[in-house]
Design brief:
- The complex is a heterodimer of chains A (about 400) and B (about 325).
- Chain A is of the alpha/beta class and about 400 residues long.
- Chain A has eleven helices and 17 strands.
- Chain A has a seven-stranded mixed β-sheet with strand order 12-10-9-8-6-7-17, with helices on both faces. Chain A has a six-stranded parallel β-sheet with strand order 2-1-3-4-5-11, sandwiched between helices.
- In chain A, strand 3, helix 4 and strand 4 form a beta-alpha-beta unit.
- In chain A, helix 6 crosses helix 7 and helix 6 runs antiparallel to helix 11.
- The longest helix of chain A is centred in the first third of the chain and has 24 residues.
- Chain B has one domain: ABC transporter involved in vitamin B12 uptake, BtuC (Orthogonal Bundle), CATH 1.10.3470.
- By secondary structure, chain B is mainly α.
- The chains are: A alpha/beta (about 400), B mainly alpha (about 325).
Amino acid sequence: MKKAITLVLMAALMLSLAACSSGGDGKAEAVTKDNLKVGVVHIMDLGDQGYTYNHDQGAKKMIAELGLREDQYIPKFNINDTDVAATNAAINELVNEGCQIIFATSFSYGTQVVEAAKAQPGVVFCHATGSDAHFNDLTNLHNYFAKIHQARYLAGIAAGLKTENNHLGYVAAFPYAEVISGYTAFFLGAKSVNPDVYMDVMYADTWGDALKEREIAEALLNRGCDVISQHSDSVSPALAAEAAGKWHVGYNNDMAPAAPNASLISARIDWGIYMTYAVKALLEGQTISVDWGEGLETGAAYLSPLNTAIAAPGTQEAIDAAAARIISGDLKIFSGALKDASGNPAVITNWDGSEVLFTFENENSVFLESDEISAPAFNAIIDGINIVS
Amino acid sequence: MSEVGVVQTIMDFFNAAVLAATPLLLATLGEILTEKSGNLNLGVEGMMYMGAMAGISASWLYEAAMGAAANGLVSVLLAVAGGILAGALGGLIYSVLTVTLRANQNVTGLTLTIFGAGIGNFFGELLGMRAGGYASITDVTKSMFNNIEMPLLSKIPVLGKMLFSHDFVVYMAVIVAVLMTWFLNKTRVGLNLRAVGESPATADAAGINVARYKYLATCVGGGLCGLGGMYISMVRFSGTWVHGCVDGRGWIAVALVIFAAWSPARAMIGALLFGGLSVLRYYMPIKDVATQFYDMVPYIATVVVLVITSIRQGKERAQPKACGINYFREER
């Protein structure tokens, strides 16, 4: 009797294994609109009303634009990007469920995504904010990020025109190029309309700790900053500005509904444009570019509606004019003889500062951000920006 | 480059420390009361989430129902009651599981943390969805949390702004700390409660209803934790639901209980110190000191205090003896 049960169990096990492997073989067949499955590894869930919410909106837009069924989008939420085991498990589950294309939304998934791309040559991997694709010759690995610095530059114009004491503040997540590039663009935008501005920056050392972000925002406001902006995930800096009767420029989501008297404008990313492009290319058998970084010209980076009730007069006109010059290529954001605090030419280095990649030598120096490699690289601290802590 | 002077910076720093300290103090007081009954409730974080969510929900739903006729005072009272009741509900769940059903205290507390955080974020976001993005209370209710300028006292230069110009919850937290000191040391009921925490068998023999004391202390303690959560959502986030708003402050409160050596009076100092340390970097930055170092300091301080108290072995400064152990009358 026992032997019979063992045999039955073994048969069942082998059958299930066979079923698994046949599921895996499914990848080999041509990708069609009907059998397509799109997996997305998200760092948080929709409740953040920020980065993940935005990325999920992008996936839903892609589904709608390509006329796919809702069940063809398989999201994995709350996959901590520092948790290697959880990241691997999420990617494996998506592969096993038959996804032909997988998007990973956070920078620190990088190593796991590269490993998975090597192990699963039949699956297309797209990694946001990363730069591994450029340095690998894997044909199924791609990086993408929007030229958000363009939108931040424009949002900076709203701040520069609004400030009454020329003192700006910035709640920054980490001292990484992505963040430095963002706040420098914001500062340069403000400076383009108000040459007297200067800016205090404080790091939170986290992408999202709402209370900490609020405490930092309050400290900046106490220091005298009258317009603050942020590269962090929650709405709490906007709430701090609202409570203090000061102004704010947001990121990821339109923050005006939460802080109607403080939120001037927000810089946003439309992930749907890339996701639609990548999935469409897969369906049509076309190659997906190794690095993708579009900006204002296609709407991949854009602005929430200007809060005209509180913005300085002429803000919309100034933003529109600058936007037109950015789109035409007339205006390059990181250009000219940028200086550091001690008056030397600003330099962009690699991640650990051991190698100088670019020097702003003279008026003709132009650094094209997110052009060749989609991940931001500008990491110079320029004059006028004061890193408080 | 800051255009504010040194005195102003110190005042700003102190006031920021008070804002950071208030939810910590309320939760610490709640946990002290709970542990005095012999219940080691590690679910502080969860109860704070429940209080944060219930406080904002009560206020928001009341405003939605009343429209323009909403009264700020009623709205705030509802928020306070909602926060306390939700936290007390967490305490009640804990008591039923550990006192009546005698489940393991550590496991129950950890479960309560996860449960409370889930419940809080779920209903908080549901509220946000109903409000169409962000759930926010109106300015009428927000203004009730404005700083109360004490007559005459708040006019004292420097000190007036530091000590006599805060929102009502701050004063409430201080009053609760003072009352709890008196209650635990000077009243019969308070002494009975301490007896239950030190030796439930002795208390039982003396005719004290052990279960009732444990239930009441844990529920009231949970209510205080819930009030701390309400302070976070209603004051620190201006009555807007923010995902993950409590984010570990409940655990700091658990550490503070040890730091304060189970004394409500010392909890005030401890909360102010921890609150101050958490915002120190933003007001007194030192170049070249790693930012992560500032984040470590409160915990290093807790470890140092633990080492010192365990060397001194004072009975007054130790955890209640029966804390963490369920009481079985049959095993007496």
